[in-house]
Design brief:
Layout: H1 4-14, H2 16-29, H3 31-48, H4 53-105, H5 113-152, H6 154-201, H7 203-208, H8 212-249, H9 251-264, H10 269-316, H11 340-343, E1 378-387, E2 397-405, E3 409-414, H12 420-428, E4 435-440, E5 443-444, H13 450-456, E6 457-460, E7 469-470, H14 471-475, H15 484-494, H16 497-502, E8 509-510, H17 517-530, E9 535-539, H18 547-559, E10 563-567, H19 571-576, E11 579-583, E12 588-591, H20 593-599, H21 601-607
Parallel strand pairs: 3-10, 3-11, 6-9, 9-10
Antiparallel strand pairs: 1-2, 1-4, 4-5, 7-8, 11-12
This protein binds adenosine-5'-triphosphate.
Adenosine-5'-triphosphate binds next to α12.
Protein name: ATP-binding cassette, subfamily C
Pfam family, one: ABC_tran
Region (Disordered): 313-334, 608-642
Length: 642
């Protein structure tokens, strides 16, 4: 893999001709700095102090000429700088693009690639140019000042050299620490960025699973870490200040204190003045721009370029990827959409489902047998709930009433886009109705804290929420610190022991992108199973599973103490349920599967039984029709639509 030093050296070697020309014009640029002290000394000693102001002015005019030559040098230097820097930037851009494309082709889509292309490459280009100018400026300005001082007199050069060398030595010693701090800063900045992106992109699932406080704490911890690193980085400013004080300012009092001694060495006041000019106009600014330039731009250059080269190499497959974000960071690209478009086509039918037809009763909503007495009480209650996505939108749900007793197993079916997920969101407290009330476990959802909601219900949405972190963190996410044997028992109950073993055990690191959509769903279901909530809402949460696995998991959830609401992906789910809620845009009907078949031709059509019941059953969510323009009337106790 190319290193920062390797790439920089190669770039400088390739542009050798331009660098020599740059050196030539840089020499012209520092002419005023090189001659300023000498010409000032002559102007004072042999002009003004000797009573010949004309001679003094002539020396100063020469200095003016040198300034003009210096200006031309500056002008040409900047033009040449572009010839050195732009090819470097192009080369870097090529590497980053190649890496990103190779990564994407290898299935490793990288959200940070855009930031690298648009931001970090430009940052490296700018800091590279700045660094070249700083180092060049220092070498020439410092060299010119040293030559000038030596041309005045060796003792003067000695008085200046001691503190300057002390300052430079201190800077050289502190540089590795500065690099380390800068690297720490960049890494923690990236960690914070990842945490924020993860939290924002996963906010729906975070809210749904009641993990808002936990994720807030986690992002807050990244912010605190970033603040700590920034404070440490700021302490390096003190070291830079000391360097400048030693190398840039100490020579001035040193020269003034040494003046009597210098005069005894038969140096005139003009020479001392000239030396002061070299220090204040040459050494001091050169050291200042070196220290500030290297500390700011140079460190950013080295650290950012290092990250870019490593990322490009890892995407190319030539080395490891940069370290994973710390757990529990969800990978932004990890959640695979599992909406009707991808899940509806999976098919499946009642005949293929072992549990088909065994759990439903017969009769209308009013005549249904009550749920087991031991679970009596209301698990879920909606009263006149109306919800629309915007103030001028048609309501998705309009005056919906629904009563789900504790221990019930309800399946919600309806055409795609009819409002099933919206209903799930309202029950989970993720969405809030414009009017009406929602109660879960006898308590209102409105006004409940995320923690209270998480204790009452768990919603597994279509996008299974699995994040980069250990298997354990993914499983005990809703009940942190669960003992292994509790997880073992739940996995065995859901038939997932084999999957956990295959994934490497509880301490194995999971990368969501390396899991299949079905595996992600099974992990999310295991997490939901372990949650303390009595109400489980599965919103097409099994759509990537084969019918047998889906039946096994749904059966297990139906047997779990509490209440189960399933937004169905296959008709087999409706056959397993105790009751079925049909949303169809004209009526919301609640009955058993058989009852709905008898009562509603729309239900027969939806589940694919046809008028004579000869058509094989199909997935229930594949019917694209939805009467959005007609508001959905009331639910289990049908009311007329407004
Ligand atoms: N965030 C939103 N903003 C505006 N409209 C939305 C939003 N989410 C859903 N809708 C609309 O609300 C209606 C109901 O959507 P919902 O997702 O609840 O349907 P669904 O029955 O779950 O569909 P599917 O079976 O395809 O998942 C749809 O017409 C949809 O376009």
């Amino acid at each position: 893999m190319t290193t920062v030093t390797g790439m920089t050296r190669a770039a400088l070697r390739d542009r050798r001709a331009q660098l020599w020309r740059l050196a030539g014009w840089s020499a012209a640029e520092v002419l005023p700095a090189a001659l300023s002290g000498l010409l000032t000394a002559h102007a004072v000693d042999s002009g003004f102090l000797a009573g010949r102001p004309g001679v003094g002015l002539a020396w100063l005019a020469l200095l003016g000429l040198a300034v003009l030559v210096g200006a031309a040098g500056t002008h040409r230097s900047y033009a040449l700088l572009g010839e050195v820097v732009e090819p470097f930037r192009d080369d870097l851009l090529r590497r980053v693009v190649r890496g990103a494309v190779a990564g994407a082709a290898g299935g490793r889509a990288d959200d940070a690639a855009v930031a690298r292309l648009t931001h970090q490459v430009e940052l490296v280009r700018d800091t590279y140019a700045g660094l070249l100018m700083v180092v060049r400026g220092f070498l020439f300005a410092f060299g010119a000042a040293v030559l000038g001082l030596l041309s005045l007199a060796a003792p003067v050069a000695l008085v200046v050299a001691v503190p300057v060398l002390a300052g430079l030595g201190l800077f050289a010693v502190a540089l590795p620490v500065m690099v380390a701090r800068q690297r720490e800063y960049v890494l923690s900045d990236e960690r914070l960025g990842r945490a924020v992106v993860t939290a924002v992109t996963g906010h729906r699932d975070v809210t749904a699973s009641g993990a808002r406080d936990r994720v807030t704490d986690w992002v807050g911890a990244s912010v605190d870490a970033q603040a700590r690193v920034e404070r440490r980085l700021a302490t390096m400013a003190a070291t830079r200040g000391l360097t400048l004080a030693l190398g840039g300012w100490l020579p001035v009092p040193a020269l003034l204190l040494a003046t009597p001694w210098l005069v005894r060495q038969e140096l005139g006041p003009g020479a001392v003045l000239g030396a002061l000019v070299y220090v204040t106009r040459g050494v001091q600014p050169a050291l200042h721009s070196l220290v500030q330039g290297v500390a700011a731009g140079g460190l950013r250059f080295a650290v950012t370029l290092d990250r870019l080269l490593k990322a490009a190499a890892s995407s190319d497959g030539t080395t490891d990827r940069p370290g994973p974000p710390p757990a529990p960071s969800a990978s932004p690209g990890a959640a695979v959409a599992c909406g009707s478009a991808s899940c509806g086509s999976a098919g499946g039918d009642a005949a293929a489902c072992p549990g088909a037809g065994t759990t439903v009763g017969r009769g209308s909503a009013g005549s249904l047998p009550p749920p087991p007495a031991s679970r009596a009480g209301s698990a879920l209650s909606l009263r006149a709930v109306t919800f629309r996505y915007g103030p001028h939108a048609d309501p998705v749900l309009d005056h919906l009433d629904l009563e789900v007793p504790a221990g019930d197993h309800l399946v919600i079916v309806g055409a795609s886009g009819i409002g099933k997920s919206t209903l799930a969101g309202l029950v989970a407290g993720v969405l809030h109705p414009q009017s009406g009330t929602v109660h879960v476990g006898g308590s209102p959802v409105a006004g409940a804290t995320p923690r209270q909601l998480a204790d009452r219900r768990v919603l597994i949405p279509q996008e299974a929420y699995v994040f980069t972190g250990t298997l354990r963190e993914n499983i005990d996410y809703l009940v942190p610190g669960l003992p292994d044997d509790a997880m073992d028992r739940a996995a065995a109950r859901l038939g997932l022991t084999g999957l956990l073993a295959r994934l490497g055990g509880y301490d194995a690191l999971l990368r969501p992108a390396d899991l299949s959509a079905g595996e992600r769903q099974q992990l999310a279901l295991l997490r939901a199973w372990l949650s303390p909530a009595a109400l489980v809402i599965l919103d097409e949460a099994t759509c990537h599973l084969d019918p047998a696995t889906e039946a096994r998991l749904e059966g297990a959830f139906a047997a779990r103490p509490g209440t189960l609401v399933v937004i169905a992906h296959r008709v087999s789910s409706a056959l397993r349920a105790r009751r079925v809620l049909l949303l169809d845009g004209r009526a919301a009907l609640l009955d058993t599967h058989q009852g709905l078949l008898a009562r509603s031709p729309a239900y027969g059509a939806l589940v694919g039984y046809g008028d004579q019941g000869t058509t094989p059953p199909e997935a229930v969510t594949t019917n694209p029709t939805r009467g959005r323009s007609a508001p959905l009337p009331s639910g289990s106790a049908p009311r007329s639509s407004p």
